């Protein structure tokens, strides 16, 4: 009886943690496992985790793809990006 209650709570917290992680732009599977293994703590960590959608971005000078401001290489074309404080107008 006690084991089935723990499994139910672990799955419930895993689903809740996965939903929160997904809304913040992270892996659903990873957050589900974190929430199921450490139910209460995992949920709190997911709520405190940063939101990738709010990260400043900039365009790649070669292909034009939007890259994170802190990226050193463009994930689209592999172009080496210089550090700049210029932020894309789409993220403001």
From TrEMBL:
Keywords: Membrane, Transmembrane, Transmembrane helix. The chain crosses the membrane at residues 28-49. This is Zinc ribbon domain-containing protein. It comes from Paraconexibacter algicola. The lineage of its organism: Bacteria, Bacillati, Actinomycetota, Thermoleophilia, Solirubrobacterales.
